[in-house]
Amino acid sequence: MRQKKIVPVLIILTLITGFIQTAFAGDLVTPRLDGTYEKMPDGTKKISVSLSASIDDKRVYIENAPLQVSAENETGKTLLGSAVTNLKGKAFFEISPGKSIPEDKEGYYTFVIQYEGNQKFNITSKTIRVKELFMEISFPKSDSIINVQVSVSAKNDKGVKETVQDIPVEFYVKRLFGLFKFGSEKTDASGLCTAEFPKSLPGDTTGKAIIVAKVLDNEFYGTVGASVDFKKATPLILEPKQKRGLGDTDAPLWMVYTLLVLLTGVWFHVIYVIGLVIRINIKGKKALKKTIMTE
Questions:
Q1: Of the residues 124, 214, 224, 242, which has the fewest C-beta atoms closer than 10 A?
Q2: Sequence-distant (≥ 6) Cβ neighbours of residue 214 within 8 angstroms
Q3: Cβ pair 20, 12 in contact under 8 A
Q4: Which segment of 2-6, 25-29, 96-100 scores lowest on mean pLDDT?
């Protein structure tokens, strides 16, 4: 009899537990996962990820969230590695130039960023599909001007490199605190574009400058960069810093005379005050002696 009474109780508890889990599952927030792809000038492939969620109509960054990065094609999925978000919900994953990444039949990389969720957030993922782009910088010979030429190419369906036409390329020179843009061109039918390097832009003291070319946020290739050292820029001339002081011999004469008059006046007043103190002291002593003698 007791067993018959226990069975319905267990069934009811099971149903209640399942209802509670379903209710909690329904309250989970689906986060927003964004990702971008960039091929660095040294060939490193960098995936930047941002993980956030909307809670009470406020954007909240999800920190310390583990993310898995994989590459997919028709044959399956290959795990490339993992990353963890920082305080601002951002994570960065880099793939070294020598690492092999599986491609699909069309020659695209398909990167999948996976977030497994937790007690507050649902599982979510982001897919980035890009094709590898190749850029080469050269300096065609010219008599009077300095030209910077960029060649842009990509692999076709057969895996053979071919030129890419009508793609915008930005030209920069690396400065101390960032990049200075000096040109923006589109590639022609041969995959080439050229910009003139300003002669007014100096390099370092030896005439060396770093030229950077970039394709920005392209829907097929992402962001791709290339760089090269240019050793024929105008050398930077460092002028010695002038030291200024009161005793400089190259100061204007009116300044020297004014300073002498002011200092003379100051010292005259100092000496005059000292003299008054001495006179007052002497007269005070004499007056004290006369008072003692009369008494």
A1: 242
A2: 169, 170, 172, 223, 224, 225, 226
A3: no
A4: 2-6
**pTM for this entry:** 0.69
pLDDT in tens, 217-242: 999 999 999 999 988 877 777 777 66
> φ and ψ at 279, to 5 degrees?
-65, -45
Which pLDDT belongs to residue 151?
96
Dump strand ranges (E) for the chain.
Answer: 32-39, 45-55, 58-61, 66-73, 76-84, 90-95, 108-115, 124-131, 133-138, 146-155, 161-163, 168-175, 178-186, 192-197, 209-218, 222-230
Pick the CATH number of 133-230 from 2.60.40.730, 3.30.2130.10, 2.70.150.10, 3.40.50.1820: 2.60.40.730
What is the CB-side half-sphere exposure of residue 246 using CA atoms within 13 A? 5
Q: What is the CATH number of domain 29-129?
A: 2.60.40.10
